[in-house]
Every structure is written in C-alpha cells, then in structure tokens.
Amino acid sequence: MPEHSELTKKTFLKYASINEGGDKYLSLEDFLDAIAPPDEDYHKISRNSYAVLFQIADRSKSGRVSLHDWFAFEQLLDKPDAEYEIAFRLFDQDGHGEVDFDQFVRNYEAHKSPDALPFDWNSKWATLYLGGKSKRHTLSYAMFSQMLSGLMGERVRQAFQYYDRSNTGYILPEQFQEIIKKTASHKLSDTMLENLHTLCNISQSSKVSYASVRAFLNVVRHIDMVDVIAQNATARSKDGLITRQDFMEEAAKSTKFSLFTPLEIDVLFHFTSLSNKTGRLSLDDFRRVFDPTWLAPAERYIKSEMQKIEAAKNALVNPRSFLSEVFESAYNFALGSFAGAFGATVVYPIDLVKTRMQNQRTSQPGQQLLYKNSIDCFTKVISREGFRGLYSGLGPQLVGVAPEKAIKLTVNDLVRGKLTGKDGALPLWAEIVAGGTAGGCQVIFTNPLEIVKIRLQIQGELSKSVENVPKRSALWIVRNLGLVGLYKGATACLLRDVPFSAIYFPAYAHLKKDYFGEGPNKKLNVWQLLVAGAIAGIPAAYLTTPSDVIKTRLQVESRKGQTTYHGLRHCASTIMKEEGFKAFFKGGPARILRSSPQFGCTLAAYEVLHQMFPLPGHAKTEAGHATPSHEGKIAGSPVKYLRSRNALKILLDIDENFGKPGMLTPKRAALIPGLKAKVN
User: pTM score, two decimals?
Assistant: First the structure.
C-alpha cells in the first residue's frame, strides 16, 4: 500500500544515522531502535538479542541497512509466517532457498552456549529430517519450519535420557528444572521457573516421570490456547474466577474436541494453583506461571511508578518520554473532565448557596439580612428564582473543570517525580510541596472562570432584591472586566488553592495507603476511594474557607452603601472589624458538604466511563493516575516488535543463548560464511 510504504520510509529516515553520498543507512544501533522500542518489556529476551535480526536485514553483509533493505525487512515482518521465515533466512546463509546439514550445524555451533545440554545431530530424530550420515539432504523452507517446531521436544527428550542413564523413566526434580531452564526459560515466567521442581508432586513418586515431562511440554506448546480458554472462561464467570471443571468445559467448547489429556490438565492446574489454593482461579493465576513477561504486582507497581518518576525527572532532557506519560494521563483527564462536570453539576446548588452566604455582610447599619442560614438561602433561591436559579453560573464552572483537573494532576505528578529519591521514597514535605505547587498552577485557569461564575451566582440575587438591575451574560462580564480584571482576587485564590491541594493530595494518598491498605496487591473499591476522598476533603475545605471568603468578597461587585475592598489586607481587616472572626468561616459547612458528594459522583461517573470507553492496554484507575496493565503493554506494542520478538522466541528454542550479545565470538563467526561479527 502506498501509505504503508510512506510510513516505512518515514520510520527509516527517523532512525538512519549514516549518511554516505546522499544516501541514508541504518547502523546496528539504529536498527535496534527501529524494531525494538526502548520502552518495551525485555524481561526475558535481551534487547541486544534483536541484533541477530540485523543479519537478515543486512542483505549485502556490509554492516549497514539501506532503504531498500529496510523495505524488504518490513515486508518480511508483514508476512503471517514471518517468525519461521526469519529463522530460515538466518540459516540459509547463501540465499539459495534451502538449508543443508552442514550449514545448520555450523550456525548452531556458532551460537550455542558453552554449558548447553548435549544434543546429538546424528540421532534418529535428526536423521528423519536431515537423512543419515551418508544420505544427507537439504531442507526446504516448509521442512525446516516443521523441524524447528519439534526441536524443543527432541532437545528435552535427549536431555532426559542424558540424566536417566539407567533408563528408569524418571529423573530428579532438580534435573527436570535444569532441562526446562535451558530449553524453555524464554517461554515461562520466573514464578514457573522457580517452582519447576514441584512437578513431582502430581504423582506419588519423589521423581519426575517422562510422561509428566511430555505433558508439561504439551501444555507449554498450547499455552496461547490456554490463555484464550482462560480468558473466555473467566469472562463468563460472575466473579472472574473459574474452577478446573469450568476450564475443561470451556476448552471443550473452544476447541471442539478434547485438547488436553488428563495428565496435562493435572500439570496445568498444579502450577496455576501454586499461589491460589482455593480451587477458584483468576486469569492472572494462569498468566502468573505461563506468561514469560509476567511480573508480581509489587514489581509491576514499582516498575510503573519508577517509569513515571524517571520520565518526570528527565522531562526537559527527554520530553518525548514524559509526554508519553502525559498522553496516557490525558485520556484519564478527558474522562475525568466529563466525570468532574457531572459531579460539579450535582453539587452546584450547594456551591451557589455557599457563595451567597459568604457574600452576605452581617453588620451593615440598617441592612436587613437576606438569608438566616444556608437552608433559608436554598429555599429562597427556589421560591424567588426558580429551580434554574440554583444553577446560575454553571457554564463557567463546567468550562473550568477540564483545565483545572489537567493542570493540577500533571503538575502534582511532575513535581512528585522530581522530588522522589533514587530509592523511590517521597518524604511528606515533598508531597506537600507537590500538592501546593499543583494548586498554585491551577489558579491560572480557575481564577478567571471563578470570578465570572461568582458574579453570575450573585446576579440572580440582585435582580430580586434591587430594582432595575440588568441581567448580564458571561461574555459581557468577561469583556467588562478585561484581562487584568479577570485576575482580581487571584492572591486570595492562591491562598485558598495552594494550601487546599497541599493538604488534600498527601491526606488522600496516605488515607488510601496507610488506612485502607492500598498497594500493589490490593486495589481499593469505590466506597473506600469515596471515603478517603471525602475525609481528605474535610480539613482541606474547611481550613481554607477564610481565603475563599476573602476571594468571594474581592470578586463580587460591591452594592450601594457597602464597603469597597481595595485589596487582600484591606478586605481581611474590614471583615474582621465589621463582622468579626466568625465571618471568615461563612460557607465552611457548605464547602465540606459539597466536597464529599462531588467526589462520590465524580468517581462513580469516572468508573462507568472507564468501563464504557477503556484505553486499550491499560487498567481501570482513578483519574490522572493510570498504571499500564502488564498484558496490555505487550498487546499494544508495534507489530514490528511483536513479530521480531516471536522470531527470537523460535530461535531460542534452538539454544537459550542464540543471538545474545557476546556469544558470537570471531572464532565462532568464522563458522558462518559472510558474517561480520561484532565483538563485545
């Protein structure tokens, strides 16, 4: 496709660093960057191992890859059987379309590890594919691929016989563990590799039988199907947990026949039940043992957090990395904005009552109080202005939700990352500074919107209590105030938002972690998040009420006969003189009553939106704090990387060190015609 070719060319030019005679070329390092993104998971297969694929792309064996070479390699990766064809081309050094015995063994010897298990290329199995010593024949691509598919099984069989010198049909558990580690470690998780020796427990013997070994290999061979069956079965389950019987029934439906023998089922459920003895397993229990890139929740959590911290620390040096984290959060900001708008709408009447109570001056001579208390204010608004009067000024509030949330969460994460130590520890003072900085930055967006909102909230009150008061729109207020006027009361806004965030963020984080026990092994449910947010909001909202009162007074137009405030100090001293200390906490209870339901409604809406519009490859989390899910990181990876990764997995079936840097010495490279080895 033309657009595909253009994208391929763009990728090539992006990474090519060699420029000769006006032509661009990829060096080995450039090639690695292009096919193996640095941010992928290289837990099992070293990123440098991808260098072995450079031999395929470098068709002229010149030590560099041209644009035409890159086009050819990309087309190869697009083939449905790319993994096997890459392996075939690696062994077909002269490019004749066939592999002979000597070629294959030379390449094998050049790459195999020094402590590799013995393998007899003159065995009956090898003879069936390659012919006897006097009747060797070449292998076509189809024959070569078929041989590779059975190579791991033969390696294990020969290794079993190597340890079973007495032909008893049994070997020691540690010997079985050694065999699998050297033949299939790239296909299994660390949890599985650490528990291989327990295979003997599925029988009465203290040793491992050959039947158990074959059953184990067959399960590994069909592990992709196991994952599909487990996904389907857990999806049907109400609680996401399945029994052995559930799995077997789903396997029968999915495969139309009995794919697994009774012994294979025993092996499968022996290992998947190692950390869960309840008999009801989750999808994660299956992936814990059979997914090679699986990490324990604690490791996954720490790794994700450290990635964010590093991205924040290097935001100026490597903005691409930090922006990728920000983009991930942008999705959460978008959902959070909609959810926040919903939450703000639900509690907006409380906010309107709070504003009017704060603006009411109680000690003006001859002035009659409009409202006795918050309840009186609420009822009078409805009776005088109707139900719509409770939502005066809602528009600016909704407009401000998205930028306020985005700037607050982004700055908080960035500063937390900058202040986090190398060990991942973040002191309390740093949490307070991060929260306070985030609160300060949001004022840029919130102050103009709040002053418009407040004037609209008070406008309805004036129209009913003062004659001939014109009704103004939000646009009129903006034009009338001008840019400078929109930031009237910004100092008071800072005095409110900085301490609010400095209190709220650390309190919320510690309530979740220290009181409810949130961590890598425990995700909090909705009511726990609701309670944590509500409790954290109580001191943050109430203690910052004085600043909120001063801000409201400064941002509202003074009426006839009322004192006009000339600044922060003048406003504070006048309120103290005319109304007393209690006036600074007007609307305080309303601020508290607003924070809890607003948080609850926002969170509930966020959860629903997250389920309706999930970000591919990411788990559900609270707004602004998404953590990539383990399996999603692989599933969402570029096709070039996935195909290359699978090709290496097939090559590692030949030997665990195939393609690893440092293994291909000049002496070994001499065994392979035309290969220019790089000595590490």
Answer: 0.56
